[in-house]
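4.2 Preliminary Data

To establish feasibility before requesting continued support, the project team ran the inverse folding procedure on a target of 277 residues. The structure was first converted into the token representation described in Section 3, and no sequence information of any kind was made available to the design step. The complete token record follows.
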């Protein structure tokens, strides 16, 4: 299984100074990630996405699509594999999303001589804390028809995935309880999740309190000889809150370079994009 690199930039801003004899401090971590899929490359495309109808759509050096009349279309979809976000010890609750699909639909001529431009399609996103339990699909908004929108190549969509405070509240209470335990690092959410699931194995079947993984879904009519060449997604988010200093420094080692990695039992390691720096 090939490994993929997704550019990640992390900025750490201390928003308050350490108090004397304090064992914790507050900080904001701003992170940017991107997912790039080249549909002119069969190996890259199949490793990062799936599509349907598989018996109709194919990949060539021109991209994902099918050969047929310009005025005929196939209802299809493509779905990305899970992308890990956040950090291995701190989870995200709100993420800004920007998606670009190249190229934009081309105008074609109908049998009666009239010109028509295909619909650009729709893009959705969803999230999961453990890669097994997922939110519903949330539609991103097309920005191509927005007023004063600059003319750019491709079709563009944007939106945000956010966990409501009410949905996160039970998890927050358990995190607070975990931080009172005699543990190596009170801010380690990965360890806290394992502790929670020992007590409540079905917790994530009832609650989706944070964003650990993100998937994208594109749906639309794919017209003859109008192939999709690439799918690019840019994600940005901030991780904030009180950060306890680890009692055991080995627990913290290299954790800022590792995205969220907790997976429900039965989920294979190869079923998501490693997303390593």
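Position-by-position output of the design step:
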């Amino acid at each position: 299984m090939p490994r993929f690199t997704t550019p990640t930039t992390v900025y750490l801003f201390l928003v308050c100074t350490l108090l004397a004899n304090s064992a914790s401090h507050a900080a904001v971590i701003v992170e940017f990630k991107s997912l790039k899929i080249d549909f002119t490359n069969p190996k890259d495309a199949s490793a990062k996405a799936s599509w349907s109808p598989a018996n109709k759509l194919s990949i060539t050096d021109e991209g994902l699509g099918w050969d047929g009349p310009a005025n005929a279309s196939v209802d299809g979809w493509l779905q990305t594999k899970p992308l890990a976000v956040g950090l291995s010890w701190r989870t995200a609750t709100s993420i800004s999303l920007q998606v670009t699909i190249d190229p934009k639909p081309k105008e074609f001529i109908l049998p009666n001589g009239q010109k028509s431009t295909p619909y650009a399609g729709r893009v959705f996103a969803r999230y999961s804390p453990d890669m097994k339990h997922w939110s519903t699909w949330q539609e991103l908004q097309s920005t191509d028809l927005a007023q004063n929108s600059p003319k750019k190549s491709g079709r563009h969509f944007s939106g945000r995935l956010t966990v409501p405070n009410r949905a996160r509240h039970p998890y927050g209470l358990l995190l607070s309880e975990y931080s009172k335990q005699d543990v190596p690092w009170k801010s380690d959410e990965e360890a806290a999740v394992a502790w929670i699931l020992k007590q409540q194995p079905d917790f994530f079947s009832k609650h989706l309190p944070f964003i650990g993984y993100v998937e994208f879904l594109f749906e639309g009519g794919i017209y003859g000889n109008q192939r999709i060449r690439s799918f690019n997604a840019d994600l940005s988010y901030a991780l904030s809150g009180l950060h306890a200093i680890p009692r055991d420094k080995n627990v913290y080692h290299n954790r800022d370079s590792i995205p969220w990695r907790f997976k429900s039992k039965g989920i294979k390691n190869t079923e998501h994009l490693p997303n390593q720096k």
